[in-house]
Structures
1.
Amino acid sequence: MFRKLLMAVSLFFITIAAQADDQKIESKVQKVVVFLNGAQVTRTAMVHISPGNSTLVFENISPGIDVQSMQVHANGEFTILSVKHELNYFNAPGKQKQIEDLLTQQKALRDQTDLKNGYLAIYEEEANTLRKNLTLSPQNVNLDVIKVKQALDFQTDRLAEIRKKERAINNEVAALNTELQKYNRQLEEINRNSGIATSNILVTVSSNLNLQSEFSLSYVVRNAKWTPVYDIRVKNINSPIAVSYKANVTQQSGEDWKNVKLTLSTGNPTVNAVKQELDPYYLNFASGPVFSNSLNEVVVVGYGTKKSDEDDQTADKAMPRQLAGVSTIPLSVSQKENQTSVDFNIDNPYSIPTNGKEYLVEIKSLEINATYQYAVVPKMSTDVFLTAKVTDWNKYNFLSGQANLYFESTYIGKSFINTNSTADTLSLSLGVDKNIVVTRKPLNEFTERQGLGSNKKETRDWRIEIKNRKSQGVNLLVEDQVPVSQNAQITVDTQELSGGQLDKTTGKIQWSFALKPQSDKKIELKYQVKYPKNQFLVIL
């Protein structure tokens, strides 16, 4: 019995000694590289290392880190034996002081509300007293008329003043209640997140000396991203395009980034960086015939690789949460182009809380030469769109994103910059210009129909009219079409194009011309379709 007690005591002291070797370290986020999906966080801390083996516990780190991405760097005459990760549910971020501060502010608001309501009660009592004291009755009919009038005037003025004060107090009470609701929501949010764990990174080191060393920890978190957004301003069609290239940065990693060195990278660590390999593509008959629902045919089965459900779940986890609110801070930015990505280094320290809000960072401002052209497809819409074409756009490192459009100092709406193209020219839509009027009408009230032998002919004749009401000339592109036959029994005869360029494969016709100020132009489009009488054909 004594031996068992001695062993238990020994184990207890061994455990205490082991815990004593664990040194808790508070580190600070110094640098963050935000990717299109995810972010790499770098923390630093100055650590005292004692002789022997010891475990350094870096606390209060994001719970959503990618464990495989952890890296630890340090210099000195010691050895790093191991690096481990653990979730700590017992050392969640201390919220008690924040809760106490909110409760104190809540109490102050409630005290003010009670005081205001007390004034309302006093004013109501005063109003009731005034009404009772000046009520006329048969016993005081012989009162002096002048004195009665003076008393009534006093009562009216005083009651009006009381009502005015009551309205002001009610407005103040409403404002106080609104502030009180904000504090209630903050407390609810804190209580909802109070059970969230943090990460610990455990670094075991061995040293023969007493020394100090600066440790650097880096890891990737998933709940962070930046998305490109643009402001595009065009003064007039004779001026270059002014482009403000910006980023909406957001994160919900579970740790605040306070006054950190921020870098925006076009890389994406969540994308598989390994080149895909082709497996042999074998063909063989299935064990039994497989029939499709729509056609009575045998389906040949091909065998290949398939993405697992686990991959889908991983992709779902990497999706960002919904965002709320926008904050804006302009910063100085420098650009660095790597082999597979581009980094935009924010020169000034920057702070992004872990609240899911968007913080707008200006990356750079550019003036880009462009060729302007007005374009219209009157068959679809008579609206005339102004487009700007930018050549050699790849050198600006743009990404696909939403753009706010401003033309002639007026906001005209939103557009989308699509850079997922191999074309050398980037086309930007700058909205509709109502000063160019376009109509498209049938030239004859009824289309011409003829029967000839076993065939039938139908003719369509359209007139397109364009009026330039602007004080300056414009270059205009008009697009329309003629039908394209996919049957040898159907023939299309183009009879009038007014000089338009016809693509016989697609049937698309283009007219490109300059239109002087306050001038107009007419275009005629006429074609005839021949097909068998016993067939039905819809011709527009």
2.
Amino acid sequence: MRLTLRTLLAYLDDQLDPADAEVLAKKIAASEFATKQVTRIRDVTRRLRLGAPKLRGRGMGLDPNTVAEYLENTLSNQRVPDFEKLSLESDIYLAEVAACHQILARILTDPAEIDPASRERMYELGHEPGAHDKQAADAVAKDEAEPVHDDSNKVAADEPPLRRRPEIPEYLRDETSWRGRVIAASIAVLLVVGFTVVVWMALRPPGGEGPLVVRDDQTNPSGARETSDQGPSAQPGAGSPDNPSSGPSSGANDQPPAPAPIKPDSTSSDTPRSTPAPAPSDRAKGQDDGLITPPGDETSTSKPAMPATDLAEPPSPEEATKPSAAAAEDEPPAESTTEDEPAPPQQVGKLDGRDDLLVRFDKGEDTWMLVPEQDPLFSGDVLVGLPTLPASVTLSTGVRVRPIGGARIVLVAPDEAGIPGVNIDYGQVLFEPVADQAPAKVRLITGDRRGTLTLETPGSRVAVEVVPYRTPGTNPEEAAPRLIIDLYTVSGRVSWMDAVSEMPEPFEAPAEKRLQGPALPAADLQAEGDAPLPAWTRGQEPPSPLDLRAAGTVKQHLEVGKPVTVSLEELVDDRRSEIRSLAARCLAYLDEFEALIDALNDPAHRSDNAWFAHVNTLYEALNRGPEIANRFHAALLRQRPPGADQIERMLWGYTPEQIKAGAGKQLLDDLDSDDLAVRSLAFWNLRNLTGLILYYRPHDKASARQQAIQNWRKRLPEWLATVPTAGG
């Protein structure tokens, strides 16, 4: 039996004879590509927010009739290879074919059993009481009044022809359906037993003895809910008014929770672990200042390499018993107080105009959605500005907030003075007053710093940059990053009053102040004096014509009411490389990394701006914290299991000491690797360390790269000789 997509689907849906299934299983085990496709098929059919082909699509793979002909085995042999190739290249088309095959296999193998009484009740729907009896009586009276004719050999003209009984295709016929029923029944029994144990453990009082006491006032203090495998790893807005953990006092509004970093199972800090460690399901309790853990995937794990049934593990007793089993038997129900009740969200602003595009996390839908034009924004809203797409929010105090390319912020409820706040998770954000509304105030909450920013004059503009920082060469899965917070006074006059200070600190443009963080490397420090402020502080940098066209296409494709990740995943398959690139980068800012991982091996991204932006985006994502690093690790294992550890280690970066210890020689060898992603990351690391280019281009052919590689082998030791040793 040949190993094709059709036979692979029949094998996965248990539609083959035992002998054929055994032969095919051996072929799958011997083929790395087939093993990867088995894992991929199971992944795409379970992905909750994966898009689907259009109902009226045209062309190979988009037309539902083509899919039906392929499954019916009536598609011409000339078209089958193209159809299978398209299905294997696209997750959307592969999920469509696999899901349809699975549904047909189930329907044709195990017909639905309907209770006769239920069937009769359904047929009676739509008829008034007694109407059936009346119609029957009228029919009898009509028959008695009409003469009787012998029509035994005559067919009524209006009688429809008998419908031909559909035949089951040969490859879907199953002579061993009993095995599927036994497996389904066994799984159902296991699920029922597991659910019973979980419920019993959840309702069991502390100590395991004594009668069960259920109290009406028991609630989940964290307000967090479990997410699916495709949902974010941490519920955004955990510290929002929808889910506060502190009282209403103004002091509590400005105190952030201590971050709870995810500790990986591996104890080694030199190499990535081979399997992802799932993030803890319980999230850190946020405060009312809107401090959050960025959305990510807590439960993402690597898929098995061989065909296997994925069984979800029930929660442990420790997880199941907190916090609902915290009530004591003899303790009377406590009266609800205002401190225990979550405060309702407060409107703090709105999206400005139709040209602004902002993404908001919808906790009800558990996904990212587009903010409609002029839509009100509330405290606790988690907002992301996508790269090259402008966004602008006006707060109730007359302050305009503009996230610049990939910034994530959380809106914070007003304090006792009525001043709303903005919690900057990461990225670059501009603040300026609305016309003729100066002075205007906004509370700034980020990292360990919080205070009030006052825009004194109408033309004032302040830029704030929050950069998660990690020492290059360290494992991002093992420690939380440090934050570098810079405040730039771009124009006008502003003042900053820290929460622990009694006097505001004035600034006159141009000015720069480091609010928090260690000293940057010398290469990143700006010179004192008349050095201009960073270009991004003047607003969204003018994009190139290609980026401008890509941004317009992405903006037109995003729809209000449709998950943003689904729309972007559809653009990842666009024929134009600039649109694929922008869509993949946007998905990475929403903590979806599969598309950007694939882009590392896309030879169409030849320009330095494109592939360098891809690597920088992934590097910055790893710096956001262990949760995001774990999510990236799981995505990397799914997309390219071979070489995943090498790719991840190269994205950590290197120190000069590590280069001297042997990493430099490996990077030089990787410049001539057959893997485009490895070549690109090797050059990216060497360029960041030395500032040199030496005419090397990772997308060039092997013969064209040789001279540049020889230059690198000569210049890297010379550069290392100029680098002082640690502590020297």
3.
Amino acid sequence: MASAQKPYVIVRTYSVGVFAGNLKSRDGKEVVLTDARRLWYWAGAASLSQLAVSGTSRPNDCKFPVAVPAVTLTEVIEILDVTPEAETSIKAVPIRLRRRLRLRLLDCNRSAASASRHFSR
């Protein structure tokens, strides 16, 4: 859970989308978030407001890539405080990999398993 000094928030920007993370600083329309994930697609919440209050009821259907250590967002148009329940829910969404990379990782795992079976005989 985020400390009182760095509240966990959802930020909507004018042109680069929606992020969730710890609010490090704000200067007008510029926000710096730490440990931030882009909320590329969400399911299980009717709106960002509901996501900020309740979290997602369908975490496996959400598309939230890996968190970045810090991001500076300009042209911020909305900042939503996130409840502890919703923060836990958002952070529990599995990291979404690109489909091509995910398929390569699956192929590597299959190859490793096959090699392991071959050499264990």
4.
Amino acid sequence: MSGYIGAIPVPEATQNRTNHTATAGQTTFAVDYTVGFIDVFLNGIKLANEDFTATNGSSVVLASAAAVNDIFDTISYTAFNPADTVSASTGGTFAGGVTVSGTLTANSAAINANGSGGTTGIHVNKNDTNGYFFRAEFDGGTNNNRTYNLKPPISDSSSEPFIWATGNSHAWEVDGSEVLRIGSSKAIGLSGANYGTAGQVLTSAGSGAAPSWASPAVGFAHTLNSGNPAVNSNPAAVGHMWVNTTTGESFICTNATANANVWVSLGVGASANIEPFSATGGIKTTYGLYTVHSFLSSGNFQVTVGSNKLIDYLIVAGGAGGGVANGGGGGGGAGGLLTGQVTKSNATYSVVVGAGGAGGAITGNGLKGVAGGNSSVFGLTAIGGGYGGGNDVNTGGNGGSGGGGARIDYSAGGSGTAGQGHNGAGTDNDNTGAGGGGAGAVGGGTSTGNAGNGGVGLSNSLRTGSGVFYAGGGGGGIEATNQHGTGGNGGGGDGGDYDEAPVAGTANTGGGGGGSGDNNTPSPNGHAGGAGGSGIVIIRYLT
């Protein structure tokens, strides 16, 4: 260094210069520096350490304020240790992490993940004869070395396992042959794109051979469904299992005849077996999975094919007629209602449908109504409705549901049959008729000069799949023009008054007839009691 007096400095630091023009009275200047490695100049004169403060690395504060347009300069230094390097020719060790913004190249050597040397490590080869691939080698000691390669699908005879990709598929290769593939649709392929066929299962051949796709053995095939099988639920073979995922019940197919299969129920308390079944009688209809026989009149239900069939039934007896009284007759009681399930086999079963009872006559100051007829099938009997009270017999009659009392003070209603219907209502001192009982509720009592309403029936969906009300009680009658009783939902007839005749119960619902409000003769003011509605029998089973 020409003209320099003294030892030539070793370039062990880098310099950073700043220049500022001061304002009047300025003492603080923003400067980035390393504490202890900064020189400060004011108007070209280097300041002594006591003339400034530089302790935070981001600003310098003068002990005396600068004048306007004074020139403030700094020279800061970044120190480094020339001994903390790794030799380019002989190599060395980095104690910390290393970040490379360019390309890191290892020619004819390995990048060792564990520092053990040799071939163990992570290899990234760009000029391998087998194509581009990534290799990870792990040295686990004698006979425990592992090498894994990721490469494109280029033929290779290497015995090392490869994992490679083509498009969205990934494959595993062992001893030069592909053994497993995951396809783009997530399907599993064996020995290439062998994805098997629908319904096949992966089958092991033991430790000495590769697995394969195979169809399940007979008996393993099964169906999961929220309902039970039907005779036309056609399996592939005998031994097919059907599991009802709603109830947990299971069935095995023992006869696989198309549309005439036999399914045997498994387990204690399970449903009856499902097998071909045929029957005649009544009005035969179908909906969904069910066949229905509706009997609007008496007849026979004959099972011609099948045994142990689970059958749903609804039995409704005839409703009773309403009574006649010169103040208000009682409403007729609804026919008894039974519903449930039985298991039946090949046989003929008598079906009786009860008639509705006649309404009370207007003779002799008015008479009580007539009880409804019983309905029956499978040894089960629904009791006909109890008559509505009249002038001759003031209290309501007992039956499937009881009849309503007549206008005489405090006449009692009839009793219903447990499990089939409800009681009819009694009267108070209002001189009006009370409502007959229904399958769903007791008849309505008289109040404030108004007749009682018939009790509501019950809804049932066996016939069509939609709910229909049956067995509503008849409404009570009233002589004046006050409100007569309304019939209960389920075919119950409305009661009558001085001007209006009572309404009969609806046919084939078992509804009770309405009570009459006037016994005067001859017409037009005299009205007989409303007749009860006839009963019905409905039988339903899985097709």
